[in-house]
Amino acid sequence: MVDRHVKLKLESINRTYAQGAGELRILQGADLEILSGEIVALVAPSGAGKSTLLHVSGLLERADSGSVTICDVPTDDLSDRERTLVRRQHVGYIYQFHHLLPEFNATENVMMPQLIAGQADRVAKARGEELLSMMGLKDRGTHRPAQLSGGEQQRVAIARALANSPGLILADEPTGNLDPETSSVVFDLLADSIRNHDAAGLIATHNHDIAKMADRVLTLKDGKLVPFTF
Ligand SMILES: Nc1ncnc2c1ncn2[C@@H]1O[C@H](COP(=O)(O)OP(=O)(O)OP(=O)(O)O)[C@@H](O)[C@H]1O
């Protein structure tokens, strides 16, 4: 039997934002465990806190209280600098609007996280080309983002998120701006990459057809994560 590790563990996460004189309680005791090879979809109405949950999970934002453990690294007592290092090593983040660097071509965009992590140029380039090829973009490496279609740009963003072989992939509406057919292709590529690398995925989406392709579907209710029923 394959040994499955917990890649993301959230325990009693609370996150409140100030709203005028009052407060907006977004996460209230949210718990979650995602195992290697597992993909969890998060479906919830706009404003429910999906992005907040992803930001807290990816160490882009601190919870007010609670615990975040990523790939066996407890993160609660880490400095901002240490959190950045954990994020670079273990987390791949995919945004709805890919956030590719416009002045760099596709291969260079995929190389970027590897270069930041100290990888040699030659190795980063080979890995970048391999990942683009895996995403069906072998002949698009020299194209800049503006020279790629929306689906192609999103596949480059996925390749970039996978570049350092992170244990945890977080995706915020990764197919939000794509047509249904392209969405399904892009989700398949993302899901296969996560499963083949024994990583774990947490994917926020409004699209129920996409959510159904995940292993589990959760929603946010009263600030907690609970199973979603279609
Ligand atoms: N930095 C902030 N300061 C104050 N309020 C915030 C902040 N970030 C988010 N919020 C509020 O918290 C709530 C949850 O926001 P969040 O972006 O997590 O929702 P979401 O479920 O991802 O929504 P959407 O599906 O529209 O992207 C919203 O009402 C938002 O206005």
Automatic annotation (TrEMBL):
Signal peptide: none annotated. Residues 8-229 form the ABC transporter domain. Keywords: ATP-binding, Lipoprotein, Nucleotide-binding, Translocase, Transport. It comes from the Bacteria. SMART domains: AAA. One of its GO terms (molecular function) is ATP binding. InterPro entries: AAA+_ATPase, ABC_transporter-like_ATP-bd, ABC_transporter-like_CS, ABC_transpr_LolD-like, MacB-like_ATP-bd, P-loop_NTPase. Belongs to the ABC transporter superfamily. PANTHER family: IMPORT ATP-BINDING PROTEIN, LIPOPROTEIN-RELEASING SYSTEM ATP-BINDING PROTEIN LOLD. This is Lipoprotein-releasing system ATP-binding protein LolD. It comes from Maritalea porphyrae. The gene is lolD.
